[in-house]
Please model this.
Amino acid sequence: MLINKHDNVEVNTTDGHKYALKDIKIGENIIKYGQPIGHALCDIKKGDHVHTHNIKTNLSGKIDYTYNKAECNDEKVDTDLHFMGYVRKDGQIGIRNDIWIVNTVGCVNKISEKLANITGAKCFPHPFGCSQLGDDQRVTQSILRGMVNHPNAGGVLVLGLGCENNNIEVFKSFLCEWDNDRVKFLNTQDFEDEISEGVKLIGELKEYASTFKRKPVHISALKVGLKCGGSDGLSGITANPLVGRFCDRLISYGGSCALTEVPEMFGAEHLLMDRCKDREIFEKTVRMINDFKDYYTRYNQVIYENPSPGNKKGGITTLEEKSLGCIQKGGLSSVVDVIGYGDRLSKNGLSLLDGPGNDIVAVTNLMAVGVHMILFTTGRGTPLGTAVPTVKIATNHALAERKKGWIDFDASPTLDGNDLTDELTEYVIKIANGEMTKNEKNGYEEISIFKDGVTL
Model:
């Protein structure tokens, strides 16, 4: 299937692998999505399989970037489309009304799990919060603060031990402010029976959360995270472009989307940079990209050690190919902001979020900036979900049929020319209205915090 008139490879729609459309000389660029995805290591005959044995990335080192502002799809559309959300006292909108237990430190993980089992609250174990220093601890605090402030939580119990670096008093100073009705704190070292005290506090939080009822909220209030994982050769052909069309539509309605996975922008970052709304955002994007490349070299690692074994088995050969498919989730709208750790998704439009491509870390980062849900495309399949609804969108029908317990939406009909943007929009609104995703039904709701620092 030809993707672009300039391509010299086509994709087998069964297995996602590439085959030459014409003879390709050694050293000649392999073109997919109308862009180079590497160069030929040898002469390739028309019809030959094009993969790791005969193609290599063009990427190496850091790059000097130039801002070439592109025309973007920024049309605004009037709509009366609404979803039924929870309007919080501070004006934030939630699409769930759960009670969350947020641990300041990994030492209380089992206590939080026990409290969750007794009360029905949701807990999110992690190993950090003790013996961390400097920026490393601030990243942990930023993610936990994002959880405490997340509007999908009707009430939050902050659960601490008492002697950790990130103890409750230290964490309170990082939070700055909170609603005493919505957020309760429990230092487990301070109570003879921490379980009874936790159950009592969660009961108070449940009573408070019960005062909120769903109300009509304009679609412009919706915030959606964009993620792909276990990608295959069809990701950039079916699911990712579909999510991109949805992203453009939501933004046209005044909504917000966040695109992350910085290492999976490498090789396609110039396209995102050209879509930056102004030079300031362009320069922030350049810093984000280069800072992440510096992170690799600081540990003497190859910047372009990607794609993963599963990606390669699914037909993705080089990082350029993976990245050019990955960024399609962000549609064609302007990039309006760059978000770092501890920041919030605050601007209507498409924002870029700093962070790695690792699935569980990336969905945690997206959740912590305040997205209501995450659209997660996958060609290989994954059960992963985080604290917010994590919608799994299959790139191929075989996966959708084989893993019905994981997959929420099948994007494969787009191969036959079907535009599923309306269907995906309707499904997203159903999720916003309260329909549960597979990760929620299964209880697959986890977090993992990015670590890059010293542990005492």
User: Anything to note?
Assistant: The two ends are 54 Å apart (CA to CA). The chain has a mean pLDDT of 95. Residues 222 and 331 are 17 Å apart (CA to CA). The longest helix spans residues 279-298.
